[in-house]
């Protein structure tokens, strides 16, 4: 995490960049046969002129700010800059294995997306989110492109004109990575890389990168590595003499030079086998870690402690809500996927019923299937919960899209039949109108602000009413010498309906969980 990312300046630059990208995307869609909506206002003479002036000036500024006329023509610098890109690239291509290559920190990136239907606003959210993802991964967003095109080019994803435009921007800005806002087929990524001459990462690769950076626990790390290898396997691309350097590496690397035959293919095969072996090992490890967690879960089940899972889109405020409800003090960050490792905390309803509350990994549109697979055991805990608090950032311009994306993932792990409360968070920053809109559609909602505490008490009541409650009603008379039973009733989450101190002992009217009832029989009146 770099410091600058959280400063207002940094985010306003991002906003400006995005505004610029969108303006450009809207006003100047590439003229191509597949263009969907011909924009009647596209490229009026005046506009074309303005754009030309702007870009000329930008270039001029860039060149004149750094040097004066005393510096001469700066051919060397120009050459060095163009050379540096090429040099950097050729080094990467020759010595770096696919795994290492992919794991190089993305530093200076150019975003590129296809706008293939849907509204301009949707294209905007997606691009904004991609920028946020890139920032979270630690990169600086330099510029971006949107191409209006009904279907991606099978070879290079973008049309050839746009691809060249991206290449030029990359060279001019000194970018080292192009991030594409979709999942690319391996061949498309290769095709595009061959044109833009720098590393191309797709949305899936970017999300995997963030997960890799954020994973803390042994299980989380293993899960992410498994997902990365799964993603990598069909995308192996040889980069020259990489194999020999790879021998002691943890993860298998790529093999043969591109297009090489014979021995080269054997190398890729070898690598594939090694990756498969590593994946099998990781799967065993992950399976081995499951019992500990399952034992804990079984223990909770046996004691019939209700479990509540917090789920929701990334950055919705899940961890903040957990902290608000339980003082858990878990990490809260204005970054995507701040939380990967589930945290479980004890909580108590206002009337003293204990339950567990778990924070989980956030979801995102197009959450890579490899990740859903790898995190299945974590996500299954959500499916196993008695209640899901589906946290929604109500201050987001399009929360419905996020709700739908979360439900898609929940359905994938069979968590869609679990009772759900839609918790509209960030009410302090949300518009009344949006909140009302969602409340009309959703039967069970709570409006809260984890920041101000608004609505938190009501949410606690709602949780209390929604979790399985003790159901066996008993009338007990507990002699004073058995005071520990009374304490136990409190500890074991009995619902105490009334207490009366009589001569023979404490007279209690309680509701307990069925498991506890037999032990209390002897005190029944
Ligand atoms: N204005 C406002 N901001 C909030 C509120 N709750 C959380 N946030 C902010 O939203 C950002 C994300 O909060 P987190 O609690 O980390 O969100 P999360 O859902 O756990 O995110 P991930 O773990 O990354 O998926 C932080 O910058 C919080 O300060 C709220 O009620 N109001
Ligand atoms: Mg979190």
From TrEMBL:
Domain Hflx-type G: 306-471
Origin species: Nesterenkonia alkaliphila
Family: Belongs to the TRAFAC class OBG-HflX-like GTPase superfamily. HflX GTPase family.
Keyword Ribonucleoprotein (UniProt): no
Keywords: Cytoplasm, GTP-binding, Magnesium, Metal-binding, Nucleotide-binding
Gene3D superfamilies per UniProt: 6.10.250.2860, GTPase HflX, N-terminal domain (3.40.50.11060), P-loop containing nucleotide triphosphate hydrolases (3.40.50.300)
NCBIfam families: GTP_HflX
Subcellular location, principal: cytoplasm
Compositionally biased intervals (Gly residues): 249-262
Region spans: Disordered: 25-50, 244-265
Gene Ontology cellular-component annotations: cytoplasm
Bilayer-spanning residue ranges: none
Summary of the function given for this chain in its UniProt record: GTPase that associates with the 50S ribosomal subunit and may have a role during protein synthesis or ribosome biogenesis.
Keyword Nucleus: no
Record note on quaternary structure: Monomer. Associates with the 50S ribosomal subunit.
Chain's gene name: hflX
Cited InterPro entries: G_HFLX_dom (IPR030394), GTP-bd (IPR006073), GTP-bd_M (IPR032305), GTPase_HflX (IPR016496), GTPase_HflX_N (IPR025121), GTPase_HflX_N_sf (IPR042108), P-loop_NTPase (IPR027417)
Subcellular location: Cytoplasm
Gene Ontology terms, MF aspect: GTP binding; GTPase activity; metal ion binding; ribosome binding
This protein's name: GTPase HflX
């Amino acid at each position: 995490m770099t410091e600058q990312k959280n400063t207002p300046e940094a985010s306003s630059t991002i906003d400006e960049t995005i505004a610029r990208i969108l303006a450009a995307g809207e006003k100047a869609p590439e003229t191509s046969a597949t263009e969907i909506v011909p924009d009647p206002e596209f490229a009026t003479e005046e506009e074309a002129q303005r754009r030309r002036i702007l870009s000329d000036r930008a270039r001029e500024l860039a060149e004149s700010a750094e040097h004066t006329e005393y510096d001469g023509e700066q051919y060397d610098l120009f050459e060095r800059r163009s050379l540096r890109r090429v040099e950097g690239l050729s080094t990467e291509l020759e010595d770096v294995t696919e795994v290492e290559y992919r794991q190089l920190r993305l530093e200076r990136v150019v975003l590129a997306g296809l706008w293939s239907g849907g509204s301009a606003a949707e294209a905007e959210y997606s691009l904004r989110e991609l920028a946020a993802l890139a920032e979270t991964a630690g990169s600086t967003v330099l510029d971006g492109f949107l191409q209006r095109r009904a279907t991606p080019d099978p070879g290079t994803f973008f049309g050839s004109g746009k691809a060249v435009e991206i290449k030029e921007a990359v060279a001019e800005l000194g970018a080292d990575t192009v991030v594409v806002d979709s999942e690319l087929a391996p061949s498309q990524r290769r095709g595009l890389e061959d044109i833009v001459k720098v590393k191309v990462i797709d949305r899936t690769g970017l999300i995997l990168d963030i997960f890799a950076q954020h994973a803390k626990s042994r299980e989380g790390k293993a899960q992410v590595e498994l997902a990365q290898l799964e993603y990598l396997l069909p995308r192996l691309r040889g980069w020259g003499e990489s194999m020999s350097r790879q021998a002691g590496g943890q993860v298998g690397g790529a093999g043969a030079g591109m297009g090489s035959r014979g021995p080269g293919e054997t190398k890729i095969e070898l690598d594939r086998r090694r990756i498969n072996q590593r994946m099998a090992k990781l799967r065993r490890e992950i399976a081995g870690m499951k019992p500990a967690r399952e034992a804990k879960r079984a223990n909770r089940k046996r004691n019939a402690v209700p479990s509540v899972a917090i789920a929701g889109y990334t950055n919705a405020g899940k961890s903040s809500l957990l902290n608000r409800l339980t003082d858990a003090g878990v990490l809260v960050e204005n970054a995507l996927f701040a939380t990967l490792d589930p945290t479980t905390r004890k909580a108590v309803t206002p009337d003293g019923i204990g339950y567990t509350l778990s924070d989980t990994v956030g979801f995102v549109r197009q959450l890579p299937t490899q990740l859903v697979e790898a995190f299945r055991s974590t996500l299954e805990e959500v499916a196993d919960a008695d209640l899901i608090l589906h946290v929604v950032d109500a201050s987001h311009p399009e929360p419905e899209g996020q709700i739908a994306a979360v439900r898609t993932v929940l359905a994938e792990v069979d968590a869609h039949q679990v009772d759900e409360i839609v918790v509209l968070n960030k009410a302090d920053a949300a518009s009344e109108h949006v909140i009302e809109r969602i409340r009309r559609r959703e039967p069970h909602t709570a409006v809260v602000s984890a920041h101000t505490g608004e609505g938190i008490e009501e949410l606690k009541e709602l949780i209390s009413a929604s979790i399985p409650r003790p159901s066996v009603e008993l009338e007990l008379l507990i002699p004073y010498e058995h005071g520990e039973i009374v304490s136990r009733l409190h500890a074991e989450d009995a619902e105490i309906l009334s207490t009366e101190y009589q001569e023979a002992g404490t007279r209690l009217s309680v509701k307990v969980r069925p498991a506890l009832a037999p032990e209390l029989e002897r005190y029944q009146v």
